[in-house]
Amino acid sequence: MTRIVLKLGGSIITKKSQDRLEVDHETLDRLAREIGESINGLELFIVHGAGPYGHVPAKHYGLEEGFKGAPSVKGFSVTHSNMEVLNFHVVDALMQADVNAIAFQPSAAGILKSQKIVSMDVAPVAQMMGLGLVPVGYGDVLVDEDTKVNILSGDHLVPYMAEKLAADRVVIATDYNGIYEGKPGESKRLELITRDDLDILAGRKTHGTDVTGGIKRKVTELLDLAEKGIPVEILSGREEDYVKNALHGVTGQGTIISKG
After folding, report:
1. For the chain, which ranges sit under pLDDT 70?
2. Whose CA is closest to 164, among 212, 106, 95, 215?
3. Backbone angles phi, psi at 235, to 5 degrees
4. Contact indicator for 254, 180 with CB cutoff of 8 Å
5. pLDDT confidence of residue 19
6. Whole-angstrom Cα distance, residue 249 to residue 208?
7. Which run of H or E residues covers position 2?
């Protein structure tokens, strides 16, 4: 069995660029069907991004700045509740596509230290995957040893789980077909990224409200993973069958993150 960690970006399953709490059901349902058509022979762990469901309330309550009393407690509750709603939609779409999906709640399993995971029990996840279940995690709000509360980005959860689960590879589906030198669609797509290319990404930001850092920070964590022998590809979740092809082992559709 091939073990894969798949990330579905929040920007492709929601109306993130508009900061509306709205699921893009058409795209989500298509991606779920592609996953359902590819699941045979795979052990799959899925992470989905937050989109406005997480980023908007997290920013409103300043959760990325740590604990600030009662507003932080309220923000923790509101943000997590929103993410449970989005997670329900993702799990439901997968189940409708005959994928045996099950929700995985990071805030109930993990602890952060300065926004980095220092503890998370993945043994139950691995056992569920071995049974043929597909756990579906997400960006969440967690307790933090330094700041009391903080944001766990789905982009941080992906490399952590990939390493702990000894994944064979990672596939990340986003709005655009990989990483570009400049503005997507108006500049050259990078077919391969190594550490030598990080300066190109300095200052690049994602679309819509995002409290989890820019593209450079996210790619840096994926480079750390690639250097441990787990290949990563970032590709378009908007293009039909790209995710399906990637789950079947096709590479080179988007941008490959390589140890160089």
Report:
1. 16, 18, 200, 202-214, 260
2. 106
3. -145, 175
4. no
5. 74
6. 31
7. strand 2-8
Tens-digit pLDDT profile for residues 24-46: 999 999 999 999 999 999 999 99
Helices 154-164 and 215-226: crossing angle in degrees, nearest 10, is: 0
3-state secondary structure 92-108: HHHHHCCCCEEECCHHH
117 sits in which H/E element: strand 116-120
Beta-carbon contacts of 124 under 8 Å, excluding residues fewer than 6 positions away, are: none
The candidate with the shortest Cα–Cα distance to 39, out of 94, 118, 114, is: 94
Q: CATH class for domain 2-257?
A: alpha beta
CA 250 to chain centre: 20
pLDDT of amino acid 98: 98
157 in Cβ contact with 106 (< 8 Å): yes
As a 3-state breakdown, the chain gives helix, strand, coil percent values, each rounded to 5, of 40, 25, 35
- Strand-pair category, 116-120 with 110-113: antiparallel
Hey, where are the domains in the chain? 2-257
Q: What is the DSSP string of 30-60?
A: HHHHHHHTT-TTEEEEEEE--HHHHHHHHHH
The H or E element that residue 118 is part of is strand 116-120
- Cα–Cα distance for residue pair 147/171, rounded to 1 Å: 31
Output the pTM of the full model.
Answer: 0.92
